[in-house]
Write a structure and sequence with these properties.
The protein has 163 residues and is mostly helical. The protein is 81% helix and 2% strand.
């Protein structure tokens, strides 16, 4: 309460505080979520491609095929639920929120675990060609799921232009 009164009295302090709390609209949050998922998915696919580029054609298609099947399963049964929960959380927002709220804090913890596991797997004894299946599956699933964020972002942008 006291902080709110102080901020109303001194507008220069409010501007300084906003530097440390970058507030954005829900459209920006939707775009950012889709963009981040797309970038991470692309990065994982690049890793997978680099591990499979020297593989014989049959192995390449077989491993990539397994990765695509895995991607469809992970996308449908895993990531779409997460995306839908995030979209349901973001869409009702009417005021600007922090730039980093495009995902929940719990999700940030999950990301830390996944990045750690990915790093450990890349530097483990598992052959990278087999890891390419996992990276293709998760990477492609992330890209497919990012499309839902982008579709909702476009829909929200059109709604805003009409009003």
């Amino acid at each position: 309460m006291i902080l709110a009164l102080c901020m109303k009295k001194n507008k220069t302090k409010t501007k300084k505080r906003n530097i440390f709390n970058p507030a954005v609209t829900k459209r920006v949050l939707l775009f950012l979520a889709g963009f981040v998922w797309l970038c991470v998915g692309t990065m994982l696919l690049v890793f997978a491609y680099s591990w499979l580029q020297d593989a014989p054609g049959t192995i390449l298609f077989m491993f990539f095929g397994f990765g695509v099947v895995m991607a469809l399963l992970v996308h449908h049964f895993g990531f779409l639920r997460i995306v839908d929960k995030n979209i349901e959380r973001i869409l009702p927002m009417v005021e600007k929120k922090c730039l980093f709220s495009f995902i929940t804090w719990k999700s940030y913890m999950i990301i830390i675990v996944m990045v750690t596991m990915g790093t450990l797997l890349r530097h483990s004894i598992f052959p990278q060609q087999y890891l390419a299946i996992l990276y293709t599956g998760i990477g492609l699933a992330l890209i497919l799921s990012s499309l839902r964020y982008i579709r909702v972002f476009i829909s929200e942008t059109r709604k805003e232009k009409m009003t």
